[in-house]
Every structure is written in C-alpha cells, then in structure tokens.
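Q: Hi! Curious about what ATP synthase F0 subunit 8 looks like structurally. Here's the sequence.
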Amino acid sequence: MGDYLPNPRNLFESIVGQVYMIFGIILITYWFTCFAHYYQKFHFVTIRKFLFYLYKKFYQDIDEDVNQNISYRF
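A: Let's find out. The predicted structure is below.
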C-alpha cells in the first residue's frame, strides 16, 4: 500500500506513464486554480460587502444616537 512505483518494461509503457502523470498534474493545477478563484471571489466580494454593510450599519446607528442626543440638548 502507498505510492505507485511504475516499473515500465519498454518505451511505450514509459511514455504512457509520463503522459498519465502530465495529465494528472494539469488536472490538479486546474482544480487548485479554480479553488483559488472562487476563494478570492468569496473573500473580496461577499465578505467585504458584508463587512461594509456592518460598518455602515454601526456608524449609522452611532450617528442617529448622536443626533438624538444633540436634539435633546437644544
């Protein structure tokens, strides 16, 4: 059990093994690239929009409280 250790008997098996490894590397690279794209999209669009919403809501509530306190003073 464990890693596959190829033992090619001729040139054809050697070429097939190398092509198999090349396509595996390409597919894994594609998968990680897609994952990184969707992670960046999630982080920079969704989370930042949510944090901006919280920031805006927080400071809007503070401004309303300040305006109410000022209006009571006059």
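A: A fun detail: The radius of gyration is 29 Å.
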